[in-house]
Task: structure prediction
Amino acid sequence: MTAAKSVATSLLLLFTCLVTFAQNSEQKKEKIEILNSDEVNIERDKVTGKDWYRLLGNVSLLHNEMTMLCDSAHFYPDKNSVNAYHNIHIEQGDTLHMYGNILTYEGTTEIAEMTGNVVLINKETFLYTNHGTYNLKTKIANYTDSGRIVNKENILKSKRGIYYAAEDMIFFKDKVEITTPEYYITSDTMQYNTESEIVFFRGPTNMEGDSLLAFCEQGWYDTKNDIGAMSGEAMINNLKQIVRGDSIFYNDAIGQGESFGNISITDTTQKIMVKGNYAWFNKEPEQFLVTDNAFLVQFSNNDSLFLRADTLRSVMAGDTINPFRLMSAYYNCKIFRQDLQAKCDSIAYSFQDSVIRLYTAPIIWSDENQLTADSIALFTKNMEPDRLELYNSAFVVSQVDSLRYNQIKGRDLIGYFQDNELTRIYINGNGETIYYLIDGDALIGVNKATSSTIEMLFEEGKIKDIFQYEPGGDIDPPLDIYDPSLHLDGFSWFDEQRPKSVEDIFKK
Result:
């Protein structure tokens, strides 16, 4: 029993010694050590009565993994702190260095506060400020009175900043400026990763380059690969197009991007704007595709044109000297202008000859007239209607009253506009007409005729005169009751499909 007690006592003493040794070792590790000083003067604080060291010339100190060099220093062993002066150099590990003119270092917190031409270097990142602090324990540096950071080819400035050296991340606040080889970026708040060289936008941000302007409220930009994503009133102007959307992804290296949600693409030269909820766009050659509730606006001083379709696509054609835009619209196409409306399944619009071509069951409404054919071409000048051509099965209808309709049909048709009004029509081949004669408000007869060629003149949207060449037909008195035979073959009245307003082109 005595032997066992003796062994237990010995083990307890050994454990106590080990703990004491470890504690002493830890305490020694936390104390600042003087490695060198050309001159050492020991002085006593008159208030505390504690000794402190005045170190002069080639001062070298060690604390944990940090070494400090300076011209002179005041070392306070009881506080485990140092005030250093001139040519200060702090080194932590193999890659982090800090320089300045005046230093206050607290060994307990491992916080260094430096003023005067402060430089912090971590690998390829250089931080310049006049006053900054660095926590050697957490490896976090910050400045509050303007700083500049150089990372490879990127230069970053701000009023305030926090540098998380271990995570290679810098947080910038107030008057942030970033200069890259491609862009000058300004914001109120940003983050920057020094390894990936990616900028993160945390507030309203402007980007300006030789060939691109951009704005967003949130996003990121990869300065190495020249790609980025933006959200919050996002806008990109690549000097070819102005693109807006809830969010935009853009690869400036290849000049391509995508936009999502409430998008718009504007071409100020052509005075057009396209909107939708998704867009793909390319800078060179200039082209874009818009889907999901897509519509186009062509602005005019007199009357803008609105085009709605499932999909809108634009490409540039021609050569480098004379390029021109080709617009295509696919499926459920509708057009609205105050003086002209249209509906079809697909549209092609050439900006070279200013011709809008409508395919697959096209319908055009002009004033009181409805025009249909297998396909229709609308020619414009200065963004105003000039003439239209109907190919195969041309048919023109206008309503006289709730039961009666003026009708003209033939193989092909050419119509002419003046001051945005349809004034003249030529029917070529297999012409047929049903035309009601009116005297004032009285209906006095109906003219049914056939002719190889028909010319019609209009005034204020109504038929004024009809000229028939080699005609055949007769004039009958009007019937008091509806006569189904007074419809030419192929007659249809599509007034319920006619867009009466801009809002109507969005109705299914």
